[in-house]
Each structure stands twice: as C-alpha cells, then as structure tokens.
Amino acid sequence: LVGELPLDTESEAVHFSLPSVLKPRYTPAGSSDPLAPIGGEGSQVEKSSAPAVSSFSLNVAESDDVTSVTSPTHGINTVIKDGSVEVTLTDVGPLDKDVVVLIHYKDPHTPRATVEEGRVEEGNELMSNPAVMLDFFPKFSSLQAACEFVFVVDRSGSMSGTYINSAKDTLILFLKSIPPGCYFNIIGFGSRFEHLFPKSVLYNQTNLDKAMSHAHGLSANLGGTELLSPLEFVFGQELLPGLPRQIFVLTDGSVSNTQACINVTKKNAHVARVFTFGIGSGASSALVKGLARAGNGGAEFIKEGERMQGKVISSLKKALQPSVTDVELKLSVPPGIEVLQAPSKIPPVFNGEKLVLYGWLKGGAGKSGPGCAVLRGKMLGSPVEHRVDFQLGVSSLSPTDIPVVHQLASKCLIQDWQDGNGLSGKSDKEK
C-alpha cells in the first residue's frame, strides 16, 4: 500500500499513524448499498479479542533532511543506518492504541520535487514515462475576518466512551477560541439530528455559556451515523450577510453513503467551506478527507494521546483567513514532452497546509534535462508564486523497484475521476 502522509499542523512534521482497530461502516436504513450488512438492521460486527497489531517497526528512507523522529503516543527507539532511520517501540507487546510517529524535516516550507523515471511495461504508457511529485508547503502573512461557524458533531452510538469525550474536548476548545464578531451554532447527529440554536447566534458571553453547558453534557445517544441530512440542513440555511460560513464536522465513523455526503458538499462549495476532524482510531479517511476536499477546507485526525490544541487552532486560522485562489501550475520541461497534471483542478491553498501535485511527462522516457514547476495564485487580489527546479534522466527504475511516485499519481488520478474531474491535458475522448 502507498499513500501520502499528512503534516502535523502544530509541529509541521510529517505525520504517520498506524490504527490499532478497524471500524465497520454504518448503513442508513433503506440503503441499497451492496456492501450493507446481510443481516439487516440488527446485525452486529463481531469484535475479536486478539490484538490488532502485535509488533511495530518503521523505516524512514532517504533521511538526509530528517532532523528528528518523535512519537506523542508511545516511547520509541531510533537508529540511523545507511541513510535511513529505523524506528521501533520501547515497549514490546500488543498495541492498545494507535501508533503516531512524527518525522521532523529541516526547512519544511521549501518546495520539493521528486522525479521518478519510468520503466518499460508493455501496454502501460503511464509506467513507461517519468512522473514528478511536487510538494508545496507555503507560509503567508496572517489575515483574519469574521465568519459564521457551524459545528456538526457525531453523537452516534459508536462515539460512546473516549470518542465522545474527545469530541467534547475538541468542541469546547473551538468554542473558547472563536474571535469576537463571529456567529456560531452546534448540531448533533446520529439517526436524527438536533441543533442548539434555531439559527446561528452572535458569539457573546451569554451564548457561549449556553454552548459550553451544552458541550459538557453531550452524549453518544442519537443512534446511527447518518450525516447526509444534517449537511443538507446546514447548506440550506440562509447565509448571514458578510459572514462566510465555515462548517466543522467532528466524527469517528464511516458511512456507506460517503459519496453522497461528498457530492452534496461539492454541490454547495460556493455556500460554505467544510473542515473535518476524524475522532479516534478507525475514522474513515475517505469520508474525512473527501468532505474537506469537496468543501475546499482541511482535514485533521485526532488520535488518543495526541495534542488537539494545535490542530484546532490551525483549522480556525484557516477558516478565518483568506486562501490563495485561482491556483495554477506551470510545468516547464524539455521539448517533445507533454505534461499531464493531476489533480486537474487545484484546490485553494491555505496558510500552513501542504499541497501535493503530480505530473506525468508523456514522451519523457529516456530524455534528460532541467525542469521547473511554478505554482501561481492570488490572495486578496495580490499575486503569489512558488517555484521549484528538478532534473530529468538522473536515475531509472529497476524491475524490482516499487514505483511509489507513479502509484501515488495513479491514486490521485483515480480520485480526480471519482470527484467528477479528469486529467489535465487530456481530451474528453482520451479520458
């Protein structure tokens, strides 16, 4: 399996997480999903008494730019060997909570380009050509504006125990951090949903006291995880003049109608931005990341033992600040090479958030020479630009090498198609 690793917003380190449990998806009543439980509404998922993970080791390759490796959840040992860092746990035995490892790099805001040459595979044009992965982690001056905040909190039965406590703590921290002049509301959901106020109210001491009392009393008593209805309700509310709407979804679960939730969010992206928090072990990355991606927001995951303050403050800052819009990528490569970009539509860029883009260099097999990637956009009408240089033809893949960049680029392309987009540079017929 290959996948992009997110950044820890507080430490600006690369964040690796290994879940200790896997959670089933909740299927709303009447669902026609072919993966719905055969036993119907009363069916239960058996929980194994055996530990999910009995041992753990991690190898950080090409670690020349790594300054340290830490863990907020476990004691770890690190050994530097042959240009890599080997990580093991100090305590040997079954894991009772998720393992989180933070990999700290020097100069994290410097744009990076990773070129992976292709290898000849019959009938596979993408693998035969080079691919480039571009990492941008910009940092801008802070600007703030008043907003409307709507907190959509999962109160389904699966949130009982430590998960609902984490959700309460996260919500309380949000409530304490809202700046003056904003409006807010809280919606709890399960098989049904309920709101604290009929509509969003001004953030003042009276309303804050009522919200804090409500947050302290939250419990996981609303049944199943049915998120679509509360999302439709929030999107349907009349907008407050001059106050952009920011929706924060706090959930532990995954649902069988994930794509329907993503679709309604994408349809209403002009109405509100959506930020998501995956609570606890086993939160669905497809749901949490998909909603944030469709809503031009950001996604965070809170594991047991992790500090949540930095994640909350970072998300609030993103919501309060204007983003870089009208973002476009210009890839300059040697003559005779066609650039195919993924994702085809670049999302808005937030301060302190990593952006990863991919390019297939069609016709670049066997070619060498310099290349350059320039990311351009606008913040409040002013131009923003970041540039990174790279070199083609430096190395090639052997038959035994894992084509990591090609696989990540392929995943990005598939996700782009699932989101209703295509591959930049391709005609409708070629898609």
Descriptive notes:
- This protein is an alpha+beta fold.
- The chain is about 20% helix and about 30% strand.
- The protein has helices at about 125-130, 160-175, 205-215, 230-235, 260-265, 285-295, 310-320, 405-420; strands at about 15-20, 55-60, 65-70, 75-80, 85-90, 100-105, 110-115, 130-135, 150-155, 185-190, 195, 200, 245-250, 270-280, 300, 325-330, 340, 355-360, 370-380, 380-390.
- Strands 9, 10, 11, 12, 13, 14 and 15 form a seven-stranded mixed sheet that branches. Strands 7-8-18-17 form a four-stranded antiparallel sheet. Strands 1-6-3 form a three-stranded antiparallel sheet, with no helix packed on it.
- α2 packs across α7.
- The protein is globular, with a radius of gyration of 23 Å.
- Residues about 40-45 and about 425-430 have low confidence and may be disordered.
Can you tell me the overall shape?
A: globular
Percent helix: 10-25%
Strand content: 25-35%
Largest sheet: 7 strands, mixed
Order of helices and strands: EEEEEEEHEEHEEEHHEHEHEHEEEEEH
How many strand segments? 20
**Nearest-integer average pLDDT:** 85
